[in-house]
Design brief:
alpha+beta; seven-stranded antiparallel beta sheet; about 20% strand
């Protein structure tokens, strides 16, 4: 039970439907779509489209999308990989000829063909009830008529002001006379409104073929990119088989590689080999969580890649034998050192959406442009802000995640789903780039090891060990509690550069018929049920 004398949020409660997102306008849009007769897929896509407008620093139609769906609340979970591929002409040899030795954030070479619009239209066609025109209409109206800047959005713009100012179109769209807009400032995106309207009328081809695609290709090639109209025209996501493990009797489902969901499952398997401590913030429990994360992320950076072109040893990574071996490496008296890591990759931002409808269709939906405001490159006629997901590629020869033609990078964005006894019990997700896999394991361990409710688990202070290092970023409340002891054990403790992650989730209480939703205070959003 929540202590009402302390700051925080109550669980959202509903019976007929619920949505949880990181922006109030998106949550409201999802609920309105559910009330208008749409289902969870319609509501998730509609909410995401709104966030592409009002929270452009976190997501956009110039990014990628992954989704998990549980039709009717059963335990059959469908996964969709909506991540885009590199241009056919982008080879390591060609990059070497061009003198490219690093994958810089605003380079055209880190812009893979965006997969989000293909994912939206496929999911709606296969599982939705409403037309794309209906679903996108709230986002179109907000882009055209204007929306007010919220506190987290203003904060994110301030952090990216110099990068946005470097692109003339981005500067005009997101800054005011070159400066960060104040909270409450009215912002419009007229070109994006027209692009969304075209997608609503003509479907995916309005984005991947014709004027919008030409605009994106022209902008990228002008910067030296190798993209072609053929690359965009051939873009296509795919349904894939989820990965899953059982943790304390609950089955956790994740999208398979090229996403890092498998890393969350690895962490859970390691944690399960240790006794549950009396308090969720016990220093020994935190030590185990940190080391399990460091070990699993080392494996991620060595092996996780696009399975269509690289051999990713999924069975081995999720095996009991590997979990036993990694758990045996953990010593509560000291940090593991050295920790083998073959390569490090960049990470950053995203939006996550959870929706459950009257029929208990559950959707776990995540959409990203990677870093806040992606590459900072905006196609001028279409208003599409392009992501920088290709920064997740490795440049190392022989690495399974090495950049190459028609290849998808290792992805940090991961939706999650939990089932038990033939039913879906929770749709959930965590934002925050690299942190997402640890975030999944962190929240699930608090729910299933300590019996916390969803909102209370999200409200706990967080930490994150930076992959490949002994550095642990810890939020202040937790740093004051255990920072000194972790330092004594050999970790390097420091404050986080920004809020660690953000999360949403919906719990389905099959006994009472209630939906219970949580939404992270680290973002602007909320959960709403009816």
């Amino acid at each position: 039970m929540r202590n009402f004398e302390e700051p925080g949020r109550s669980l959202a409660v509903g019976r007929n439907g619920m949505a949880a997102t990181s922006h109030p306008a998106a949550t409201l849009t999802a609920v309105e779509i559910l009330k208008a007769g749409g289902n969870a897929v319609d509501a998730a896509v509609g909410a995401c489209a709104v966030q592409c407008v009002v929270e452009a620093g976190s997501t956009g139609i110039g990014g990628d999308c992954f989704a998990l769906l549980a039709p009717g609340g059963g335990d059959r979970v469908l996964a969709f990989n909506g991540s885009g591929r590199t241009p056919a002409a982008l080879t390591p040899e060609r990059l070497a000829e061009l003198g490219v030795t690093t994958l810089d954030r605003s380079s055209p070479h880190v812009v893979t063909v965006p997969g989000a619009v293909d994912a939206w239209t496929r999911l709606v066609a296969d599982h939705g009830r409403m037309s794309m025109r209906e679903i996108l209409s709230p986002a179109i109206a907000m882009a055209r008529q204007g929306y007010a800047i919220t506190p987290r959005v203003a904060h994110d713009i301030e952090g990216q002001r110099e990068m946005l100012a470097a692109d003339p179109v981005a500067r005009e769209l997101f800054l005011v006379n070159g400066e960060t807009p104040a909270v409450g400032t009215l912002q419009r995106q007229m070109e994006l409104a027209a692009t969304l309207e075209a997608i609503g009328e003509k479907g995916r081809d309005a984005f991947y073929r014709g004027a919008v695609a030409e605009d994106m290709v022209d902008r990228l090639t002008a910067l030296g990119g190798l993209h072609t109209l053929e690359d965009f025209g051939e873009a296509a996501g795919e349904y894939v088989e989820p990965c899953s493990v059982t943790y304390r009797g609950w089955t956790v489902h994740e999208c398979p590689p090229n996403g890092q969901g498998i890393v969350a499952l690895m962490i859970l398997k390691i944690l399960e080999r240790f006794p549950v401590r009396s308090h969720p913030l016990d220093v020994d429990a935190i030590h185990v969580e940190v080391e399990a994360t460091r070990l699993a992320y080392a494996a991620r950076d060595a092996f996780v890649a696009d399975r269509s072109v690289s051999d990713v040893p999924v069975d081995h990574l999720l095996s009991d034998e590997l979990a036993d071996r990694l758990a045996a490496e953990i010593d509560l008296s000291r940090a593991i050192d050295p920790l083998p890591v073959l390569d490090a990759v960049e990470h950053s931002d995203t939006v996550y959406i959870s929706v459950v409808d009257r029929d208990r269709n559950a959707v776990s939906f995540i959409n990203s442009i990677f870093h806040p405001y992606g590459s900072g490159i905006v196609a001028p006629q279409s208003g599409v802000l392009l992501h920088n997901r290709g920064q997740s590629f490795s440049m190392a020869p022989g690495h399974p995640n090495r950049i190459g033609p028609r290849k998808r990078p290792m992805h940090t964005i991961i939706p999650g789903m939990v089932t038990r006894d033939g039913r879906t019990v929770m749709s959930f997700g965590v934002m925050g780039g690299h942190y997402q896999a640890m975030g999944h394991a962190h929240i699930l361990s608090k729910l299933f090891d300590h019996g916390m409710d969803l909102q209370s688990a999200m409200d706990l202070p967080r930490l994150f060990p930076l992959p490949g290092t002994k550095t642990v970023e810890i939020e202040e409340r937790l740093r004051l509690r255990i920072g000194e002891e972790l330092t004594r054990r050999g970790f390097f403790v420091q404050p986080p550069k920004w809020a660690i992650g953000g999360s949403q989730g919906i719990w389905i209480d099959w006994d009472s018929g209630a939906l219970l939703g949580g939404s992270d205070h680290r973002k602007d959003g909320c959960a709403l049920g009816f």
